[in-house]
Amino acid sequence: MGYGYGPQWGMMGGYGGYGGYGGFGMIIWIVVLIAIVALVVWLVRSTASSGMHHLPPRRSSGLDVLEERYARGEINRDEYLQKKKDIGG
User: Per the domain annotation, does 86 fall within a domain?
Assistant: First the structure.
């Protein structure tokens, strides 16, 4: 075997190191890598979004202040109910 001569020249037998498919083998590996990355991204997003469904709805801080004022006796029941209705709670 001569180096650089004949039908199988070079280190990879003249195929360029891609398994004799003219780059097709490399394309397959790139597609597989993209599929794996897409799967990981999908899994991360699905687990992150599913965890958010279990959070209680956020209350207005105005309702908290109103309840504290009512508990301290600063406002009476009628005022509390009217203000709560006005806030939308």
Answer: yes
Using pLDDT thresholds of 50, 70 and 90, give the confidence band for residue 8. low
Please tell me whether the overall predicted TM-score, pTM, comes out greater than 0.85 for this model: no
Cα–Cα distance between 3 and 11 in angstroms, integer?
A: 9
**Class of residue 66 by CB neighbours under 10 A (exposed 0-12, middle 13-18, buried 19+):** buried
Question: What's the CA gap between 40 and 33, in Å, rounded?
Answer: 11
In a domain, residue 84? The reply is yes
CA distance 29 to 2: 32
Identify each DSSP E strand in the chain by its residue range.
none
- What's the total number of domains in the chain? 1
